[in-house]
# Entry
Amino acid sequence: MGAPTSSFDLVARVKGGDRDAFSGLFDKYRRRLAVLIYYKLGQDLRVSIEIDDIIQETMLRAWRDIGQFHYRAAGSFMSWLASIATHVIIDAVRHDGRDRRRATAVVPLSQAPEAADTRTPSRLLSQKEGAAALIERLNALPDDYRQAILLAKIEGLSTPELAERMGRSREAAALLLHRAIKRFRTLRDDV
# Structure
């Protein structure tokens, strides 16, 4: 199974009933989820569907279904969250489509409270700014570089999974990811 990570420990604590541990997971994955959801929604859907609503619903479902999650390796929790987010987006698109057909206003997906009581406006703003800066840097990359980083570093796919998803050999995918990360790092000061 590999060495336990902080995510492994937090998941184990959540499964044991520790609600504060879930707040730690929420804080740890919020920015990565925001970036992933931003790109999965695409430009047209971002107009009518709020990224924060998708994040909230994703984490709500993760909390509800945490007992079904099985840690396999580093990155498996993020992969699980990415899968949940994909389903939430599909549900949101269906919901948005029904609302448009009925010509009613779009209703936010979730009005659930934040996972932690320690969420301050300045902390939330800081997280949003961090996600926005990350998205800006990713947008400055060529499409294949951005896709490689999203799949490997945001969704947490392994190199073989990345290669399969991108339709490349394992070596080509690894090289592409290496070049993408190298270019991404140079953008720190440019953007």
Remarks:
- Confidence is low (pLDDT under 50) at residues 103-107, 109-118.
